[in-house]
Design goal:
Layout (H helix, E strand, L loop, with lengths): L1 H5 E2 L24 E8 L6 E6 L1 E2 L8 E2 L4 E6 L4 E3 L1 E4 L2 E3 L12 E7 L5 E4 L2 E2 L5 E12 L7 E11 L8 E12 L20 E4 L2 E4 L1 E4 L4 E4 L9 E6 L5 E3 L8 E12 L7 E10 L2 H15 L16 E3 L6 E8 L1 E9 L33 E4 L9
Parallel strand pairs: 2-25
Antiparallel strand pairs: 1-4, 2-3, 3-5, 3-9, 6-7, 6-10, 8-9, 10-11, 10-12, 11-24, 13-14, 14-22, 15-20, 15-21, 15-23, 16-17, 18-19, 20-27, 23-26
Length: 388
């Protein structure tokens, strides 16, 4: 119980506006491993992440990636595969390795560098059903001290397969494309400090495109074909909280008007268009209990009656009963559906942000698009299924 009160694990880091209660815990609890892994019926590779939980007063970051000696994936049909470490604490199956199949059970075995062995309990991949439709309700709010705010509340209708246990998770994934102006990076006193990735540099006191600093000559020189490499990005905000359902609002396996997410309307999210993607994921009872506990903790943030940290269930066990491990490895069949929203979906007057440039400039931020949206997954590579 001390472990539950004294640790924040990387999968369930919860902020709070209530007073934090610090309870002394033994030092060995700061060495707990956290396992985060999933296999689906979609083509691999599949990923397992390993991190080291930290005490809440530790100087190092929470969820520090941790390497182990070996991770092996098993199914109940006699197949197995050793995962490869792609980066510290990130392990993957091969691109042509094991393929998840509905009806089979899967588990992993983790061997640490000091000889301890952990195993996840076998998890069955259940049928998943289908997302039938995605739709929205447009909202307008007028704060007292800010411009009018707009947004879309996102809903789905869905169904599960006949006779399934109805344990489902819906994952909201929002992605939008933006362009920034890193040549107008603001330095001290609102002076231009163009980023090297912008493809701009100062030449004779003027900001010019196609110039870059050459360290060999120690001069700014024109480069043929030089383009910005940090101007256009696809941004995906991280999931705020999981959404699960145990079938309590289902009628004959149908789910109607389930609210799954919110899309804020602003200059950046609707610079061009916004893609809403909903993943419907089947869950076993153990996986449902895990994600339901995470959802409950997220929903409890700021509540007067919020538990101190709670205890998230785990399906990973220690075979030699020595160190402690948390987290989950589970199997899930996945189906998905997408819609696109753009500036014409619902006409709204977008507030254009102001910059402190001289002369005054309004519009895109003067920053690398890879750095301008912290807390999101950002890439300069267009998703392969993005609709232009």
């Amino acid at each position: 119980m001390k472990k539950a009160l004294g640790l924040f694990i990387s999968l369930t880091v919860i902020g709070s506006c209530v007073d934090r209660i610090s309870i002394p815990i033994p030092n060995e609890y700061s060495r707990n491993l956290v396992i985060d892994g999933l296999i689906t019926n979609e083509p691999g590779p599949y990923t397992v992440k390993v991190s080291q939980a930290m005490k809440i007063d530790a100087a190092l970051p929470l969820g520090l990636p941790a390497s182990v000696k070996k991770i092996i994936l098993f199914d109940n049909a006699g197949n197995s595969e050793v995962l490869e470490e792609m980066d510290k604490g990130i392990y993957q199956t091969g691109p042509t390795g094991m393929q998840g199949k509905v009806g089979r059970e899967y588990h992993i075995q983790v061997e640490t560098n000091d000889g301890y062995v952990f195993e996840s309990l076998p998890d069955k991949m259940n049928p998943v059903g289908q997302v039938d439709s995605i739709y929205y309700e447009f909202e307008t709010r007028q704060p007292e001290d800010r411009p009018t705010e707009y947004g879309y509340r996102i809903f789905i209708d869905a169904h599960t397969t006949s006779g399934n246990n109805n344990f489902l998770r819906w994952k909201f994934i929002g992605t939008y494309v933006v362009e920034t102006l890193p040549q107008y990076k603001v330095g001290q006193g609102c002076v231009y400090t163009p980023l090297p990735c912008s493809g701009y540099a100062f030449v004779d006191g003027m900001l010019k495109k196609g110039y870059a600093f050459n360290p060999k000559t120690n001069k700014v020189e024109y480069v043929i074909g030089l383009e910005c490499t940090c101007c256009r990005c696809w941004v995906t905000p991280r999931e705020g909280k999981p959404k699960v359902n145990d079938g309590q609002v289902s009628r004959n396996g149908n789910f109607n008007k389930v609210e799954v997410g919110f899309v804020p309307v602003n200059y950046y999210t609707f610079f061009e268009k916004y893609r809403v993607e909903i993943l419907q994921m089947s869950l076993s009872r153990a996986a449902f209990d895990y994600w339901k506990a995470v959802q409950s903790q997220k929903e409890g943030i700021g509540s007067l009656f919020q538990p101190i940290t709670g205890k998230i269930p785990t399906n990973v066990i220690e075979t030699n009963k020595k160190p402690v491990v948390d987290g989950i490895f589970y199997a899930s069949a996945v189906t998905k559906k997408q819609i696109y929203l753009d500036k014409n979906t619902h006409r709204a007057e977008l507030y254009v942000p102001k910059d402190c440039m001289r002369p005054p400039r309004e519009g895109a931020v003067g920053e690398s698009c890879l750095l301008a949206f912290p807390g999101s997954i950002t890439t300069t590579v267009q998703p392969v299924d993005w609709k232009n």
